[in-house]
Amino acid sequence: MLTNVVERILDAIRVAFGNLPYLYLIPLVVVLLVLLVRWATRRRQRALARFANAPVLDGLLSSVNPSRQKLRAALIIIAIALVLLALARPRYGEREVQLSARGVDVVILLDTSRSMLAEDIGPNRFERAKLEILRLISHLRSHRVALVVFAGRAHVQCPLTMDYGAFSMFLKSVQVGSVEVGGTALPSAIEKACNLFAAGEQQYKTLVVFSDGESHSGDLEAAAREASKQGVIIHSVAVGTAQGAPIPVREESGGLKEYRRDRDRNVIISKLNLTGLARAAEITGGKTVQLSGRGGGSGPISAAIAQMVRKELQSRTVVVYNERFQYPLLVAILLIIIALVLPTRAKNATGSRRGE
After folding, report:
1. What pLDDT digit, counting tens, does each position of 329-346 carry?
2. pLDDT digit string (tens) for 88-122?
3. What is the C-alpha separation between 48 and 40, in angstroms, rounded?
4. Sheet hosting strand 288-291, strand order edge to edge
5. Other residues' Cβ atoms within 10 Å of the Cβ of residue 146
6. Which domains does the chain have, with CATH numbers?
7. What is the pTM of this model?
């Protein structure tokens, strides 16, 4: 029975205050200040006793009003306690607030084929693409994002979500070779990504492709046209350079073992194929940017997404408590002002001196 009462009291305190640690500090701070004032008073008295004898001290201190000194100290201590009470954020009363998030659906397509290991941009195409994706989503707050990885086939790594932390976790777990089938089947990846969008909508939908554009299988233009019919805008982020670079094969320790070779044992030079990626973006009215050793980035794409017509993605009702911190804070300020202007001298001190 007693336990239930205590729990109810604690629950009421949690509701009544938004920052409990400051509330718990009040008794501790008050006790410490009282002890500090007493210690300072006694120290001052001992110092005065060493300075002069009792009759002389009585004459010197006759103009001091000890009661008002104590009152001033008490006012300052109470004011500090009230400041801590204000910091504890007292709350009384509540109201319901309707929160809604408006945005668009953004599906990120990430190429995980082995050509993305080429190091014509540092540290390599794949890692640079992942870094750029993180940079892109940092500008997409209030939008829903999803991740589709593809090589010879496509796989939904993260469905549409507004949980950017979960998206980042899924992204970091992706590696080259995460999709077992080799190749670069971007058309099927576009088709799978389009299936994540709500059926019947002709806007609010965009794909952002991160790929080197090499060795695509399937009809990319046909996939782009079908996406356009559904109201999907495709943006392309071309990763790599036209000069290209060999594809390293590394040991488990990370050391370079060799470079990938073709059937004739010639080193394969993987080059950026910008044409297909640019064409897919052009068909759907999207943008194409290039990540290369000279820079580049997804800034124009995030700007284009920000200009899109938005829909309501999430709506919920939350209870908001009315903050009342201003009242104890106001009283604390008034007490400090009173303490500063409060005289601590006896009223007849001046007259006594003149009579003497």
Report:
1. 999 999 999 988 888 766
2. 999 888 777 766 678 899 999 999 999 999 998 98
3. 12
4. 154-161, 144-150, 105-111, 205-211, 232-239, 288-291
5. 21
6. 2-90+324-355 (no CATH), 100-315 (3.40.50.410)
7. 0.64
